[in-house]
Amino acid sequence: MKKYLQTTEEVLRELNSQRDGLSAGEAAKRLEENGKNKLTEAKKDSLAVRLFNQLKDPMIIILIVAAIISGITAVYSGESFADVIIIMAVVVINSVLGVFQESKAEKAIEALQAISAATSKVMRDGKILEIKSEDLVIGDVIMLEAGDSIPADARILESASLKIEEAALTGESVPVDKVIIALNLGDQKDISLGDRKNMVYMGSAVVYGRGTATVVATGMDTEVGKIADAITQAKENQTPLQIKLNQLSKVLSWLVLGICVFIFAISLIRLYLGDGITGTGVLNTFMIAVSLAVAAIPEGLAAVVTIVLSIGVTNMSKKKAVIRKLTAVETLGCTQVICSDKTGTLTQNKMTVVEYFGWDPQFLGRAVALCNDAYLNDDNKAEGEPTEAALVNYGYSHGLNKGEMEAKTCRVGEAPFDSGRKLMSTIHKLENGFFEQYTKGAPDVLVSRCTTYWDGEIQQIMTDEKRQEISYANKEMAGQALRVLSGAFRSWDAMPKEQTPDYLEKDLCFIGLTGMIDPIRPEVKDAIKECKEAGIRTVMITGDHPDTATAIAKQLDIITDTDEAITGAQLDDISDEQLGKDIGKYSVYARVQPEHKVRIVKAWQNQGMIVAMTGDGVNDAPSIKTADIGIGMGITGTDVTKNVADMVLADDNFATIVNAVREGRRIYGNIRKAIQFLLSSNLSEVLSIFIATLMGFTILLPVHLLWINLITDSFPAIALGLEKEEANSMKQPPREAKEGIFSRGLGFDVIWQGVMVTVVTITAYFVGHFMEAGVWEIAESADGITMAFLTLSMAEMFHSLNMRSRRQSIFRMQHQNHALYLAMLASLVLTTAVIFIPPIAAAFEFEPISLTEYFTAMGLAFSVIPIVETVKFFQRRMESK
Ligand code: ATP
C-alpha cells in the first residue's frame, strides 16, 4: 500500500521499524540485501574511446598525415622507416599521457567529492548517529532540520513546522508545509508528488523547521531515481585561464598554418630555381612545414595546466580547503574582500555561559535548557549546537538535568529557531495539566515582546525603567565580547491553538540574560594581518549584537573605531546607491539578516571588487551563489549552502580561507611560469626553423622538435607547477581578475627569451659546423644539427631553472624544487642518450660528436642563466621605481 495513505504506525509496522529506529545489526543486514542508497552514475568512456578522443587533436592529425606520407615514400624509395616509427611513438606517448592526465584530474575531483559526500542523522539502536547518506536503508528513522538535503524518500513521523523545497522534483519553488496524518484519496486515483504532504523526497531540501521521517525508498527506487536512469555528472567547467589558453591555441594554430604555407611556398620556389621539383625535394619541404607546426603548437600547455590545477586542488583539500569548482582556484588569487561570519569562523564556537542577569538563575536555566535542541549525554556533557549546548550546561551547573526535566514536562509544540527572527519557542505540558511556553533568543528582539518580567517570585509589569536596566546589562555584557541570549516564558491554560511565531511570541514574561564567552580562534589575528599586507579587506558579517561584534572585531584588528560598524536595521534605511558609495567605510555588519548579505556582496561587486563570502545557514545560499567565491562551512554548514559553495572549509576556520588564497596565488603564478617557459621554448623553435629555412639550411628535423616538445619540455613544465610560493606572494596586492595571459610583462618576456634561445641555438649550429669543417659558412652540417639539438634542449632545461621565479634571482630562492631538479636530470640523461646511443642516434640522424663539441654546446646552453639573471636584475630595479 502507498505509504502516504497509511498512518505513521502502519508504515512503521510494515517496514518492520519503530520510532527510535532500527538496530545497527538490522540496518547492516538491509544494506547488504538492498545495496547502497546511491543513484547509478553514467558509465564512463572506455579506455579505447578515451585514446581515440586524443587522436582528434589537430596536431596529432598533422603528425599522422606526416607519418603516412613518410611511410609511403620510405616504401618507394627504400629508405628507413625511422621517421615513421619515431612519429608514431610520439603520437602514442602523447595520447597515453593525455588519457593519464585526464584521468588524474578526474580522480582528484572524485576524491574531493568523496570528502564532501553527504551525511545524514539517523537513529540506530535508539541513539542519534551521523552516517554517510549512502548507507541509509529502508526503515531507518532520519532526523531533519533546516538546511538538510533529503537523503532518500521517506514518510514523515514528526513535523515541527517542517517546510520543504521540492523545486527539483515538482518545479514548485514555494516551500511546502509538511504534515504527519495519513492522506485520503477521496475520488482521485492517486495523489500527485507535489501534494503528498506527509512525504519527503530525495533531492529536495528542508528550508524551515524540524522533524523525523522513516525511509521508504533508497537509491534507484526513489522518485528521482525513477526519473533519471543515470545521473550524468555535470561536466567540470573550464577555468577562465583554460578558456583563454584554448583561444590562444586556436590563434596559434592559424598562425602556424599561415607560416607553414609561407615556408612551403618559399621552399618550393627554391627547389624550382635550384635542382628542380622532385619527389624527395617536395617531401623534405613538406617535412619542414610539419616541423614548424610541431614547433609552434604548445602541445604540453593544456596538459600542464590541468595537471597543475588538479595537484593544487588535492593539496588544498589536505589543508582543509575543499574546492568544489575548479574555477575557484583561479578566482581565489584575485580575492579582494573576504566577508566572514563571526561565530565559528573567526571565533571557536566553543560557548560557555560566564555571566548572568536576572532575578532567578534557576528559572532562567530551566527555560533556556528546555527551549533547546541540545541534550545531556551519558557523561552529563551537553551535545548539540554550541550555543544551545552552553545553555544546557548552564542549566546543569544549577542542578537542572535537562533529560530529567523533559521527562516531567515534555515538549508538545515548538516554533523552531531561524536566524531571521532570532528567536526560538517551545511549548511544554506540565505535570498539573497546564502548558508553559519558553522562548529564548536575541535580547533586543525578545525584550520588545515582553509585557512582564519575573522578579523571582511573581510576574511584574514591564516598565520603561526595567527595559532600560535590561538593555544596560545587555550592553555591558556585549561590550566584553560576550554573546548574550535571553530567556522568557508564557503560561497557557490549554494547548495553544497555533504554533506560529506570530501567535506564540508576544505577551512574554522576561526571565533573564545569559552572557556566553566564545574565544577567538588564535590563528585568526595573524591571518587578518596577512590579508591586510596582501591587499585583502576583511569584513565581519554577523547575526550577533553590534556591541559583541565590535568588541570582537577590535580584538582581531578588523576595525579600530566603532564607526566602522553598521547594523542590519541601519542598512535597511540606506539605498543601494548610498551603500555603494559608503561600502568602503564598513568592516562590521551586526544583527544582519541573511538577505542583507546579498546586498553587501553586490555593493562590493559594483565597485569592481572580487568578493569571497562565507555562509552556513539555509538562508545564506543566495549570498554564497552571488559571491565570486562562495564558501561553505564543513562542520556547522547546512547541505543547502555546501551544495552551492565553490569551496568548503573542512574546519570552518577563517585562517583556512587565507591559506586557500595563498595557494590560489601560488598555483596561478606557477601556471604562468609554466606558460612562459613553454611559449618561449616554442617560439625559439619556430624562430630557429624559420631563420634557417630563410637562410637555406636545415637546423633541426621534425622528429628532433617532437622529441624536445613532448619529452624534454613537459617534465620541467609540470615541475614548475609544483614550485613553492615565492617569499613575497602575500605582500602584493591581488591580481586583476580580468588580466590576460600576457599581462604584467609576460608577453615581452616570452619574446625576448625566445629570441635569446634562438640565438644560442643558431650559434651552436655554426660553431658545430666550424668545429667539423673548420670554416664559418652557411652549409648543411650534421655536427651542426646535433649541436643545435643539444644546445636547444639544454638551453630550455636551464631556462626552466630561470623560470622558478619571473623576477627574483634563482640564487636567492628560499625553497628547493626537487621535482624540477629531477626533471632537469631526466632531460639531460635522455638528450645525451639520444645523441650517444648508436641505434637511437642513427634513427634520429645524429652524427656522433666529440666531448669538446658536447661541452661547447652545454656551455652555450648554460649562457641563458647569466643572461636572464642580468635582465631580471634590471627588471627588478625598474619595477621598484
Ligand atoms: P554569525 O552570523 O557570525 O554566525 P550568529 O551565530 O550570532 O553569528 P545567527 O546564528 O544568525 O548568527 O544568530 C543570530 C542571533 O540569534 C544570535 O545573536 C542570538 O542572539 C540568536 N540565537 C542564536 N542561536 C539561537 C538559538 N539556538 N536559539 C535562540 N536564539 C538564538
TrEMBL record:
A Pfam short name: Cation_ATPase_N
What transmembrane ranges does the database entry give? 60-78, 84-100, 251-273, 285-311, 675-699, 742-766, 819-842, 854-874
Keywords (alphabetical) are: ATP-binding, Calcium, Calcium transport, Cell membrane, Ion transport, Membrane, Metal-binding, Nucleotide-binding, Translocase, Transmembrane, Transmembrane helix, Transport
Classification via SMART domains: Cation_ATPase_N
- Sequence ranges assigned to domain Cation-transporting P-type ATPase N-terminal in this UniProt record: 2-75
Q: Output the superkingdom of the source species.
A: Bacteria
Q: Name one GO molecular function term.
A: metal ion binding
List localization entries.
Answer: Cell membrane
Q: Which EC number(s) are documented for this chain?
A: 7.2.2.10
Q: Which PROSITE patterns match?
A: ATPASE_E1_E2
Q: Which InterPro entries match?
A: ATPase_P-typ_cation-transptr_C, ATPase_P-typ_cation-transptr_N, ATPase_P-typ_cyto_dom_N, ATPase_P-typ_P_site, ATPase_P-typ_TM_dom_sf, ATPase_P-typ_transduc_dom_A_sf, ATPase_P-type_domA, HAD-like_sf
Topology term for the membrane: Multi-pass membrane protein
Which ranges of the sequence are coiled-coil? none
One GO term under biological process is: export from cell
The reactions it catalyses are: Ca(2+)(in) + ATP + H2O = Ca(2+)(out) + ADP + phosphate + H(+)
GO cellular-component term (any): plasma membrane
Would you identify the family this protein belongs to, as annotated?
Belongs to the cation transport ATPase (P-type) (TC 3.A.3) family. Type IIA subfamily.
- PANTHER family on file: CALCIUM-TRANSPORTING ATPASE (PTHR42861)
Write the protein's name: P-type Ca(2+) transporter
Organism the protein comes from: Acetobacterium bakii
